[in-house]
Design goal:
CATH architecture of the largest domain: 3-Layer(aba) Sandwich
Strand order of the largest sheet: 2-10-9-8-5-3-4
CATH superfamily of the largest domain: Type I PLP-dependent aspartate aminotransferase-like (Major domain)
Number of strands: 15
Number of domains: 2
Helix content: 40-55%
Radius of gyration: 21 Å
Number of helices: 14
Distance between the termini: 30 Å
Order of helices and strands: EHHEHEHEHEEEHEHEEHHHHEEHEEEHH
Shape: globular
CATH class of the largest domain: Alpha Beta
């Protein structure tokens, strides 16, 4: 018998309690019963985003919320600044360009964090920039960017908003929207929310809502003003993913029960344990200086093909990890410690990695990485 373990940074494992919610008979969404569920979801999301603003729920992947941010804030010909430090930073640029938004790019080497001064310099050079698009936890590289400092910089420009992709950050680390002055925050259900894919969430500051009054980009399904009006009545403008909303209520309840600060600490310790294990095995991190608590990106050692490593882990040991994307494909592998994960998920990841590396001929002293991880995980 082989038991499967999902250790990718999306989708992530889903608790049985959340899955069972979706096994219940479907209910109609235009009913008081559904409205009560949706009201509880909104309350839980506001606590997670740490905001007094409305958090809107969309039936889409996180990319849908990213597109919604662009088309509800800007008009064709507006200028946006995009921090491109990975696959998902690049996605901001791709969306902006698809809607004829003038796009200035801060190029950052994959595996490094953007220096906030680069954002400050770009804004100073072009005060016409209307929105700054950033990624908090870059899933493709395992980098955590200093969004708090960037937010303080953007706050000095009254006509410019900061838009943050927090798809793998929210729930894994602190993203206090109001305290940091973040104007737009987006996330997706299949990460730290411990859910299947299919829901996206987005919150706007009052500063950002003002821009929605002048935006002229085409929008229909992702019209946030329309959604805000509907969701104020605990409904959505269009048919929602009812079962996912019901499941989200449960996952948010589990996060609340654990306590948000404890959730963040759990992710941090799992990340530290994974990085300590990788170092003990003599492997090199892609992002050693600013690592994300959501996942760890590791350079493949000489002589070990990532495809062979991932294939062996999956077929023999039932462990699924992620590979690299774009130009990092075949060069790195990524191990998640995101969402519904705890001590022994990390132990499984490290021990399976040790065995697979040894079987592929890489010199490994079995137990070395596990021991390093245990020294940290014992504090969880």
């Amino acid at each position: 018998m082989k038991k499967n373990h999902l250790l990718t940074p999306g989708p992530t494992p889903v608790p049985a309690e959340v899955l069972l919610c979706m096994a219940n008979p479907i209910i109609h969404h235009r009913t008081p019963e559904y409205e009560e569920i949706f009201a509880q979801v909104k309350k839980g999301l506001a606590a997670l985003f740490q905001t007094r603003q409305d958090v809107l729920v969309l039936s889409s992947s996180g990319t849908g919320a990213m597109e919604a941010a662009v088309i509800n804030l800007l008009s064709a010909g507006d200028t946006a600044l995009v921090v491109n430090a990975g696959k998902f930073g690049k996605r901001w640029a791709d969306i902006c360009r698809a809607f004829k938004v003038n796009t200035e790019i801060i190029e950052v080497a994959w595996g490094q964090a953007v220096h906030p001064q680069a954002v400050a310099d770009a804004l100073k050079a072009n005060p016409q920039i209307k929105a700054v698009f950033t990624t908090h936890s870059e899933t493709s590289t395992g980098v955590l960017h200093d969004i708090k400092t960037i937010a303080a910089i953007v706050a000095g420009y009254p006509e410019t908003v900061l838009v943050v992709d927090a798809i793998t950050a929210l729930g894994a680390t602190a993203v206090p929207m109001d305290d940091w002055g973040l104007d737009v925050v987006v996330t997706g259900s299949q990460k730290a929310l411990m859910m299947p894919p299919g829901l996206a969430c987005i919150a706007l500051s009052q500063k950002a809502w003002k821009l929605t009054e002048t935006s002229q980009l085409p929008k229909y399904y992702f019209d946030l003003k329309k959604e805000k009006k509907s969701q104020a009545k605990n409904q959505t403008a269009y048919t929602p993913a009812i079962s996912l909303i019901i499941a989200l209520r449960k996952s948010l309840s589990m996060i609340e029960q654990e306590g948000l600060s404890k959730v963040h600490r759990r992710h941090q310790l799992l990340a530290e344990a994974t990085r300590s294990a990788v170092a003990a095995l003599g492997l090199e991190l892609l992002a050693p200086e600013s690592p994300s608590p959501a996942l760890t990106a590791v350079k493949s050692p000489p002589g070990v093909e990532v495809s062979a490593l991932r294939g062996l882990l999956s077929k023999k040991y039932g462990v699924t990890i992620a590979g690299g994307q774009d130009h990092l494909k075949g060069k790195i592998f990524r191990i998640a410690h995101l969402g519904y994960m705890s001590t022994f998920d990390t132990i499984i990841a490290v021990s399976a990695l040790e065995m697979a590396l040894k079987e592929l001929g890489h010199p490994v002293q079995l137990g070395t990485g596990v021991k390093a991880a245990q020294k940290i995980l014992i504090n969880l």
